Amino acid sequence: MDWLSNLFFGTGIAHSVFVLAIAIAAGIFLGAKLKFKGITLGITWILFCAIACSHFGMRLDPLVESFAKDLGLILFVYSIGLQVGPSFFSSFGKGGLSLNLLAAGIVLLSCVTAYAIHLISGESIATMTGVLFGAVTNTPGLGAAQQTFVDMYPNEDASVLASGYAMAYPLGVVGIIFSLLLLRWIFRIQLDKEESRVKDDKGEEQQVAHYDIELMNPQVEGIRVRDLKLLTHVTLVVSRLLDKEGNEYMPDADTVLHVGDHVRFVTDQRNEKTVLLLGPKKEVQWEEKEKNIHLVSRHIIVTKPKYNGRKIMDLKIRDAFNITITRVRRAGIELLATPELRLQMGDRLTVVGEQAAVDKIAEKFGNSTKKLDAPNLASLFFGIVLGVALGTLPIALPGLGQPFKLGLAGGSLIIAILMGAFGTKWHLVTYTTTSANLMIREIGIALFLAAVGFGAGGSFVDTLVSGGYVWIGYGVIITLLPLLLIGIIGRKWLKLDYFTLMGLMAGSTTDPPALAYATSQSSSNDRAAVAYSTVYPLTMFLRVLTGQLMILLFL
């Protein structure tokens, strides 16, 4: 039975793969099965399973452990960067700016709290950094801090960060949700009244709608379609027109409008009052009028890379095919098809035109979902190359004893965000399906947590018994204090509704269980999810950055 003993307690590649797989499989199983009132530690169980395996003698070769940890972290943060990249910079617009400032305040306060506990208690900054990221349930920040620690002190044991993280994480998950309940109690919030407060407020997000209007405003008489914006000061897409003689056709930019025409406008829902200034709503049975000209409306998916990053106006679709693109659906969000909008791989276009022309444009754009199923590995690994290069680039900063490095996590995250946000302008295809992105992310975080657990497991129990349990209390303070302070500011002075506040607090800790709890509190609005997605990109970036700065500045 030596072969079985070698699999569990030996050395070599087979042993490493075997014990990694055991820890990951067991952790995922426990994450799916062990819940308390709907709250679960989820994939973080991998960390505790790996700690247990290591404690009982299953160890990884140090080189294998280091490789699995770094590769897993790179895959994890890179997939996150690609996901949040398209919305990263736009999230600072309008109401998103105040939410992001509040989230940044939570990140800063959590670091200040951890540093204050370090000064008062005498715990090492490395320990408190691990406790910090366990308390805010942020694994990429832990990874960035660990890597910086190893770069600065290659001969020191970095497992203390993982131990602190593991001690604080469980109550970190619970503490975030408890802070939401505590704020609700402090302000005596009643959910039904809060629902009524936000029922008629549709927020700032774009919602595309169509309106069938009978033109009655004298000011539109003789005006061309292209000049409508000069009259209304909003963007209107005219997809169909039925004139007074009963002739239906697709208008182009030079089509002249007349009082009495029936027009279908496609625009942002917030422009409804402006559209109604042109005339009253008048239902038109377009399908009956289409018998002679065979106008159809169809969804077409952009699957040819050559159209990635191209502006709609540059394609001259109307001139070449007499077709109008009215809407673009991207990542679950419907966008108005303005001339300046750049297309991306995977966009679903709503087009209106004659059947034969629509068939041609479908062939032109590809419209093949099978092409989207294949992962674009070239851009993935090209981005990782740039991320690793940027992460290892030494940057001299005044006041630091040695050059500052973004680290593998920081560099990969920045490159992924930039590629997600601006890749289309250079025609880089960064599109990945949701399932492919999630698979890369989950594999990465599973490898990272398992490797961290095996590294920390040998000393975890001894650390706990010799006083590490105190770190749990430190973690609770780091979890609750920043969330409650910013939550009170957001509610009392900025008058945020409770659902937005819950999404802000869950997003500032990048905590999915807290988001799940927040969204479950309302069945009539999605404000929690919108706030979460608004602050998530900046928060993730700041957590990775502060993880390194805590080590660089204070260790």
N-C termini distance? 48 Å
Biggest sheet strand line-up: 1-4-2-3
Count of DSSP strands: 8
Q: Which percent band covers the strand fraction?
A: 5-15%
Write down the Rg: 28 Å
Shape: elongated
Proportion of helical residues: 55-70%
Per DSSP, the total helix count is: 23
Helix/strand/pairing class, anyone? alpha+beta
Largest sheet: 4 strands, antiparallel
Give the tally of structural domains: 2
Low-confidence parts, pLDDT < 50 over ≥5 residues?
288-293
Average residue-wise pLDDT: 81
Task: Write a structural description.
The chain is an alpha+beta fold and 555 residues long. It has 2 domains: 61-198 and 377-554, no CATH class; 208-371, Regulator of K+ conductance, C-terminal domain (Alpha-Beta Plaits). The strands form 2 sheets. It has a 4-stranded antiparallel β-sheet. 60% of the residues lie in helices and 8% in strands. It is elongated.
